[in-house]
Design goal:
Number of strands: 10
Radius of gyration: 18 Å
Structural class: alpha/beta
Distance between the termini: 38 Å
Helix content: 25-40%
Number of helices: 5
Protein name: Methyltransferase domain-containing protein
CATH topology of the largest domain: Rossmann fold
Organism: Blastococcus haudaquaticus
Largest sheet: 8 strands, mixed
Oligomer: single chain
Order of helices and strands: HHEEHEEEEHEHEEE
CATH class of the largest domain: Alpha Beta
Shape: globular
CATH architecture of the largest domain: 3-Layer(aba) Sandwich
């Protein structure tokens, strides 16, 4: 992250919350970064459980996953991807390719990278159909982190992705609770037709996570200073 971006973010929080609390948060973050980085030793807990299955936490230098929700959402998405071996897969948002080799179609509106198609998810013109469509912490940015904000755009994006599914195909999305409050409300209200919502909640500064009923995570605050979710929702749709 560019130093100027960090300075603007910290400065904004200092004005809102005061110097002391922000410096304390930054110091805590620095200690956690140093203590849990991949070469600092083994974590106290190496795995987490989701739907009764043990998964290993991801500890990777890209995006410092030992500090945030990438630790759990990437292993879960990777497991879903492995289960679709041999099928046609579309990933919205260039995420998994930073952590493992991928051979599927990847769409990202902004990130320039080899093999990544730069296109708007709400206006995708792809041949389809796909057996699996993945979006790892991506749809919360649609219509929000854009020059023109459009609260209705995530719904159009999800409708478009659903239309690209083959019969029996699966749409799998992870969503950081509290980042996009309007999208939180729409998910909670069942607007998009997802057939299953599950949730994981972060337990303290060690970045351990546990699966909890989805009703328990709505309203959870997103840490905008450190850009870290305290809870995520997994939204799934089977066509």
């Amino acid at each position: 992250m560019h130093p100027a971006t960090i300075a603007r973010r910290v400065g904004g929080h200092v004005r809102e919350r005061g110097v002391g609390p922000v410096l304390a948060d930054c110091a805590t973050w620095a200690v956690r970064w140093a203590a849990h980085r991949p070469r600092a030793g083994r974590p106290s807990t190496a795995t987490f459980r989701y739907d009764g299955v043990e998964h290993r936490y991801l500890r990777h230098a890209y995006n410092w996953t030992w500090l945030n929700e990438r630790a759990v959402e990437v292993p879960l998405a990777a497991a879903v991807l492995a289960g679709a071996a041999g099928g046609r897969v579309l990933e919205v948002g260039n995420v998994l390719g930073h952590y493992q080799a991928v051979g599927h179609t990847v769409v990202d509106k902004y990130e320039r990278a080899a093999g990544v198609l730069n296109a708007d998810v709400a206006e995708l013109d792809l041949p389809g159909p796909y057996d699996l469509v993945l979006a790892v912490s991506t749809l919360e940015h649609v219509g929000l982190d854009e020059e023109v904000q459009d609260p209705g755009k995530p719904a159009r994006a999800i409708e478009r992705l659903t239309s690209l599914l083959a019969p029996g195909g699966r749409l799998w999305c992870s969503h950081p609770v509290g980042y996009n409050l309007e999208l939180d409300r729409q998910l909670q209200d069942g607007r998009f037709g997802f057939t299953r919502l599950t949730a994981l909640r972060r337990l303290g500064p060690s970045n351990r996570w546990e699966q909890v009923p989805v009703e328990e995570v709505w309203g959870t605050r997103y840490d905008r200073l450190l850009y870290t979710a305290q809870a995520i929702v997994i939204a799934e749709l089977q066509r």
